Amino acid sequence: MAGPTGRGNSLGAALNDLLHAQVTPRHRLSSYTARHWHTQLSQLTATHRGQQALQGAGLHVRTRTLINWLSDAEYNIRRSYLDLIHTAYENVAIVPADPIPAHIKRGQYEISGVVKTGDDERTRGTPGAAPLRIDGSRGHWDEIEEVWLAGELTDDEFEDHFIDDVIVEDIGEGTDGWEFPGASYCVEVR
Question: Helix/strand/coil (H, E, C) string of the chain?
Answer without folding.
Answer: CCCCEEEECCHHHHHHHHHHHHCCCCEECCCCCCCCHHHHHHHHHCCHHHHHHHHHHCCCCCHHHHHHHHHCCCCCCCHHHHHHHHHHHHHHHEECCCCCCHHHHCCEEEEEEEEEECCEEEEECECCECCEEEEHHHCCCHHHHHHHHCCCCCHHHHHHHHHHHHHHHHHCCCCCCCECCCCCEEEEEC
